[in-house]
């Protein structure tokens, strides 16, 4: 199933058809990498540099590895790299999103290390770490990559969390129901301000949240990933399997 779909999206989009890209296996990774490259290219057509925020978790690892291996000509030195969230662990901890991105991508492409801005997950004072990161973030990210949990969380914004009501702060500590519990996350205003954003999601376990987000009622308090409805959604067939608009 390698097709693009116009999903009859929920009320949030007020009739704007939502384009969902469904790709199998390696093609899913390739489609995600292509989206990233095209988004960066469109920004650099108008600006001298491009700010990107990377997603954490497991799904992006293969995407980052694909970018490192197949996109050697991408103008990596023109990128400022941020993160959408981080676990409150040291940067060399196996659970660190920064460590995963460094291993899979950042250590393998010519990005200026001084232009990689990681969240200080190791700091005991989480609010101080959040404030420090907030001062580093641009007014609006050019490119934001997001994952999605089985519960419909994105970044480290979890269903029902108080951080979903935040309208001033750009970064806050948060608590995950699954370990590592202590997180740092961008807040809804950062997602809303991003110029290009995409959600990359794979696996049957994500299918209910994908269908709820794209075709269910609009309620980001319950499904925080709906904050990214205006973005591109790149799914594998399993994650797309419950979408009414996707033929299986
Ligand atoms: C994190 C991520 C988180 C992730 C989802 C999906 O720190 O875990 O930022 O939002 O994108 O939990 O994770 P998987 O890709 O591992 O399913």
List the helices and strands and how they pair.
Layout: E1 3-7, E2 18-22, H1 25-44, E3 50-54, H2 59-70, E4 79-83, E5 85-87, H3 97-106, H4 126-136, E6 143-146, E7 171-175, E8 182-186, H5 188-193, E9 196-201, H6 207-215, E10 232-235
Parallel strand pairs: 2-10, 3-4, 3-6, 6-9, 9-10
Antiparallel strand pairs: 1-2, 5-8, 7-8
Helix pairs in contact: 1-2, 2-3
6-phosphogluconic acid (6PG) binds at residues 55-59, 84-85, 97, 147-149, 153-156.
Folded structure, characterized:
There is one protein chain. By secondary structure, this protein is α/β, with parallel strands linked by helices. The radius of gyration is 17 Å and the shape is globular. Helix content is 27%, strand content 19%. The chain has one domain (4-235): Rossmann fold. The model has no long low-confidence stretch (mean pLDDT 93). The protein has helices spanning 25-44, 59-70, 97-106, 126-136, 188-193, 207-215, and strands at 3-7, 18-22, 50-54, 79-83, 85-87, 143-146, 171-175, 182-186, 196-201, 232-235. The site of 6-phosphogluconic acid (6PG) has 15 residues, from loops.
């Amino acid at each position: 199933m390698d097709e693009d779909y116009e999903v009859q999206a929920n009320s949030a989009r007020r009739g704007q058809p939502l384009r969902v890209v469904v790709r199998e296996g390696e093609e899913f990774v390739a489609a995600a990498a292509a989206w990233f490259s095209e988004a960066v290219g469109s920004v650099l057509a108008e600006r001298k540099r491009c700010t990107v925020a990377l997603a954490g978790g497991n799904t992006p690892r293969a995407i980052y590895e694909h970018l490192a291996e197949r996109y050697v000509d991408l103008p990596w030195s023109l990128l400022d790299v941020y993160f959408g969230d981080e676990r409150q662990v040291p940067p060399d901890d196996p659970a660190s999103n920064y460590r995963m991105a460094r291993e899979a991508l950042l250590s393998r492409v010519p990005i200026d290390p001084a232009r990689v801005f990681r969240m200080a997950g190791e700091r005991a004072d989480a609010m101080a770490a959040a404030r420090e990161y907030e001062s580093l973030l641009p007014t609006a990210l050019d490119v934001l990559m997001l994952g999605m949990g089985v519960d419909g969380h994105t970044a480290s914004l979890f269903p029902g969390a108080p951080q979903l009501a935040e309208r001033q702060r750009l970064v806050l500590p948060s608590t995950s129901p699954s370990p590592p519990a202590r997180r740092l996350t961008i807040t809804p205003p950062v997602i809303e301000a991003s110029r290009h954003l995409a959600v990359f999601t794979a696996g049957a376990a994500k299918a209910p949240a994908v269908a709820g987000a794209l075709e269910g009622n609009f309620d980001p308090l319950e499904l925080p990933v709906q904050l990214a409805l205006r973005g591109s959604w790149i799914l594998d067939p399993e994650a797309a399997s419950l979408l009414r608009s996707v033929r299986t």
